[in-house]
Amino acid sequence: MDKLRFEELVNRAFENLPEIFRTNIDNVQFVIEDYPSDEQFSKVKHASKYSLLGLYEGIPLKFRGPWYGSSATVPDRISLFQKNIESYSSDENEIERNVREVLIHEIGHYFGMSEEEIRKAGY
To answer: Smallest Cα–Cα separation from 74: which of 14, 21, 29?
Structure first.
């Protein structure tokens, strides 16, 4: 799948999130990359660089104090790894479903949810 089509799927997944989530996301950069960089991969306990589907990097919303944003603040970052998501998908419908699940999973981290909490929620 080309990058533009994948980006459309990510945008659609984001637009279909409940409004309460979309409107409460602030200072986040969404990035599509083929694979995680070595630096990104080193931040997670994962079996393979080729099995990491997404990554949230930043300060979760629930941990931001009154100091947050009082000076220049680099945006948080949610990366989706296109080639890895595609490798876990058998067709475009499954790619779209996996994009949605990965996006929701990483947004859960943005809101401060742990891996366990996100998995209990079904993602």
So the answer is: 29
SS3 77: strand
Domain 3-120 has CATH 3.40.50.300: no
Hey, is 50 helix, strand or coil?
coil
Distance between first and last Cα of the chain: 24
Closest CA to 106 of 36, 51, 30: 30
For the question of whether the overall pTM of this predicted structure is more than 0.85, the answer is yes
Could you report the per-residue pLDDT of 37-77, keeping only the tens digit for each?
A: 999 988 888 778 899 999 999 999 888 887 877 777 789 99
Q: Report which secondary-structure segment, H or E, holds 116.
A: helix 115-120
Instruction: Please state whether beta strands 54-57 and 76-81 pair in parallel, antiparallel, or not at all (unpaired).
Output: antiparallel
Domain map of the chain by residue range? 3-120
- Spatial distance between the Cα atoms of 109 and 65, rounded to a whole number of angstroms: 17
Residue 88 is classified by DSSP as: T
